[in-house]
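1st attempt posting a full record on here, be nice pls
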Amino acid sequence: MKTGTAMPGSAKPLLICDLTQSYSAHGGGGISTYLREKREYLAAKTPHRHLQIVPGPEDRIVERGNHIWCEIGSDPVRGSPNYRFILRTSKVREVLAHYQPDVIESLCPWILPWTAIRHRRAFPGTALVAGYRTDFPEAHVHRVATDVGGKWFGKFMRFMSICYGEITYREFDRIYTLGRDNLPALAEMKVDRVDMLNLGVDTNLFSPEARDPAFRRELGLSGHGPLLAYAGRIDNEKKADRLVELMRRLPREMGADLVMLGDGKLREPLELVARSEGLPIAFTGFVGDRAQLARALASSDIYVSAMADETFGISIIEAQSCGLPVVGVHSGAMPARVTPQLGRLGPVDDIDAMTRFVQEIWRGEVEAMGQAARDHVLANFSWDRTFERLLGTVYPPALARAARRVGRPAPTTVITGAPIPEAT
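the predicted structure (as tokens):
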């Protein structure tokens, strides 16, 4: 049953669908943030209807105004208890066939893209957009396969994942990526029709004005030096254990503390290690209240992350928006987010370099870098800009391609706003 959407080219509302495995109600993550911000933007600033399909503990559909929230009952991911993985693709197809969205935006690489493709084959007027948010042949396949079976097995499995990506993404009408570092992988897959999309940050919420001197005491930390902060999943992919090693190597007389804002399979073992060694680290668990997360970041002094495969770094720009320099690694999206004026990046897994950078910044550049980071975010990142570009630049050619496929007139106008250049 079609539910009040419109053909491209008209000024009537569309039904836009987000489809992803990478959602957690209690684990945070960049896609969870994106889903929330997109929902709020579409509801407040457009006439469009919005369907979001994610994994959940049981089948559930909730309709409020123009928003439709759909959870597909799924089992938890082993080792990542906050996340679930949809295997019941027939149920997803059932939901898609009922609502018949005009655009499906696929936000993860496994299983669900093919669910969208199969739906499009039954309803060829549907425009398919893929968000290539992770270099999955490298981060999800090559590194894991190398650890399991050695160098040549890792190379073979990466080659197979590149072939999978080529077969999958050629079915999509448009693909966007979050950083230029993903373009070589897409080129290997022979993927064209690619746009660049920057994500955003709420600069009013994530602001130095959210700083609270009482925050550190509330954590039970008493250091007189810098308060380091990390926000995200506490697991192997994020290399969270490297931050514990960083705290081992920082001189105790420096008086540094660390707060780890998040949850994950490494949280309990790392918390046990920190407690047994007397390391000044506080583990808060997942912080679902965005205002409390902003308070935590703004009350810190330096943001630290050892992750090698950052795909965009929402947590990084949220920290920068709060006025924090960043110490990280020269890999993934980090170099695009952290210039020498905004922090320091070293080789992957080089904890000595991270230790040195934290000390150097704290001794002399912390305030200047923090102000430069805030100014950089204000000039380049906002959620309004993200979704204006998505709806005004990424979606229209996908809708036009879908229209040609079924012999409809191509859109005569963009959906909302106007095409805008991507920020650097």
